[in-house]
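Predict structure. Chain length: 527.
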Amino acid sequence: MADGRDKTGSVTRRNFCMIGAGAAAMALSGSARAAQRERPNILFLMVDQFRPDCIGADGNRAIRTPNLDRIAYEGIRFPCAYSSTPTCTPARAGLLTGLSPWNHGMLGYARVGERYAFEKPRALRDAGYHTIGIGKMHWHPQRNMHGLHELYLDESGRAETPGFVSDYRAWFAKEAPGLSPDATGIGFNEFRSGVYALPENLHPTHWTAQTAIDRLKAYDQAEPFYMKVSFARPHSPYDPPKRFWDMYESADLPPAVVGKWAARHAPRSDDGPNIWHGDLGPEQVRKSRQGYYGSVSFIDEQIGRILETLEERGLLEETLILLTADHGDMTGDHHMWRKSYAYEASARIPMLMRWPEGLVAGGRGQVCRAPVELRDVLPTFLDAAGAAIPDSLDGRSMLDLARGKAEGWREFIDLEHDICYDAANHWNALTDGRWKYIFHARDGEEQLFDLKSDPGEINDLAHAEAGSDSAPAPDYAGELRKWRGRMIEHLSVRGEEFVKDGQLALRPKSRLLSPNHPGCSCHPKKG
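Prediction complete.
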């Protein structure tokens, strides 16, 4: 059926999951290799502020990501993966808990709770895994283990408490005394880009990968490992080593896409380098993207080194590999920079998964268009570990999708962000990967995009095509009503602050935490 559902209302696999063209369908049986390890190792690769369209397997012909492409082609790619609250800390709360924003409590950028009732590293530790975290965690306090046995931190320059020094910076001080890890001179939220000013072995991207490689080479525990390897780039500063900067010097990089509705973002939000909107011209966009693309390819190379280490140790077919990001990066699209927005470059994320032989009796090279989200990572890992998945989680195992079990999967995913940068940036959204509906909470403006025909979100179908600034085009009025109704139903359980008299309520004030946040003094309320 046209909407991807059968007569019973169940999601049909045909419209959600497809075997990639030319990929070898591998029917895996219960082999001796599959029995080598009852529970697979789990390698969780996380990349910060990573646009999903900056992967070759996603269709980008300019980017060079052979190792990420390999994970996709030897596993499954989810092109409709999202970060429900697309900034660093709320995204990490969703990863940590397997919950939606309202249920883990972070509706915008705040501190991750110190302890939740159920947490990923602790749950995997309880399931018999040796748990290791490497790189950027962005938790609070910064050395909060959340159930990890080992933690090797790269927290950039963030220091919540006086005297805090991350493991990367402590290593840097010993390795390069007298030098500054910030020698390139570009800040952590700037649009500027440039060549890393120091030898590339000092770069945090290299340190993160090398720490993982050293730990993998030395790993000799009897129990399987859970290893999170979390890269702090391509989050700004866009500062790749020179060879990766040069890689894109003459490349035909995609220009920024700018919607017909985005003229309001053309003026600069301020005169500094940390702007959240502003038309800086095509040359600056290209230069920013040159640094961004170079950073991505540098990460890809380092991930390749990690994969090579797994192969050398004979662990590749004993390890589930999942790669994702906390959110994307606008890099000039719609005259916007950084993240926290409902638009694809900010809210859509990469989601790639490669399973070991015997874990999934399904074809490799799948492309699955089911809407997935960061809340699905924890139940996926529990599924792989053979551990129970609590009914309290909002996420589901993506291994089911790889197995072809798409029946009953969610129709759409919820997105939102409390006020960030400016009171105008305050919204809720829903998307199924085909349509996206956005409700702007300050003034009630609605946007509707057909992502199939307009993946760049250039044409806002809620407005101008009808000949006015407020009415939808006649062909899309019904679609707009449908998605508005879904949003009303989704938010109504939160009370009159969100839905009043059956209508979406304006919310000009910030509501950063829900009653479910561990640091909130309110009584818990599900929704």
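Summary: The two ends are 31 Å apart (CA to CA).
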